Amino acid sequence: MSSETGSHGTGSDENVPEDENEKLPGEREPQGHGEVGVPDEDPFADPGLPPHEHRVQDIDERAAKRSERTVAMLFTVSMLATVGFIASYVAFPIDKIVYIWPLGHVSALNLSLGLTLGLALFCIGAGAVHWARTLMSDVEIADERHPIEAEPEVRQKVLADFRQGAKESQLGRRKLVRHTMFGALTLVPLSGVVLLRDLGPLPEDKMRHTAWKKGKLLINENTDEPLKPDDIVVGSLAFAKPEGLDQHDHDFNVEIAKAALMLVRIEPDDIKDKRTLDWSHEGILAYSKICTHVGCPVSLYEQQTHHVLCPCHQSTFDLSDGARVLFGPAGHPLPQLKISVNKDGYLEAQGDFAEPVGPAFWERG
After folding, report:
1. 50-69 burial: b if 16+ Cβ within 10 Å, else e
2. Whole-model pTM?
3. Which of 34, 66, 75, 266 is deepest in the core (most CB within 10 A)?
4. Where in this chain does the record put each Rieske domain (predicted)?
């Protein structure tokens, strides 16, 4: 029917191009960045991955073995450097100075520690890089980005990729690399452990012993004279230090902080803990002056009750009852020192304190 031609007047299709790329009359040319008629290119188009090129280690097992030995050598050098670091810490005194050109005069300890630790860390890094570049798979894999929340399929894929990566790393196959790498990674943390020496010398058993020994006289802290029993009267409190400990000694403060002693004289009938009488002389009891809480000097004495008070945190000890704790945060009684009188009539120690003095510590019994 002629009416199907529409309202444009004619049913002829002479103006309709046969090719979709052919322009209609009056149609304008597309505008591009360059010449007229050249279509725009997508600047974000995926260029794709270049063809994969095999490395020599992928096709030649002998080359792969050489790379394996190189990696193992680097890890082994790292282990030796770590051993050298520890040996340097032991061998070189901290005050040893050497001349190294062009550095000049430097500390032998610092120089050796820096060189050995630096070499140990460098060899671990170099070994890992060489291992990755020559032995691990270098096939590039493109993966589309996905939402942060992982779907079960994605998690399964990640685990599969991990297993595939572990397989391609050849960690199970290259046993020499695996063993030497584990050795290097195991040894290098020892460097940090050795550095703990800078915190100070090891205490060993110094916390359990003081300057008191059998036969040492009790010296009055105020007069620097040896004490006799008559110098200590009932109701009084005296302070003493070991014979031979001079306040001008460079380690005086360290030693007196452990060996400070207080003496009290109590009527034997007033002593509750009769076991302390075996360590006393005519009612003269010798106890550590160092509080067992935080180490403050105990010095406030109440002669009627025989209680002694620490001024720092008010720990109270009963000197007539083995210096046990009556009140306060102290956790142990004051240690007792066994004393006697020598042939010249002076008070002397019969050994060290019965237990470690001062604050409780983790090894204390």
Report:
1. eeeeeeebbeeeeebeebbe
2. 0.49
3. 75
4. 258-348
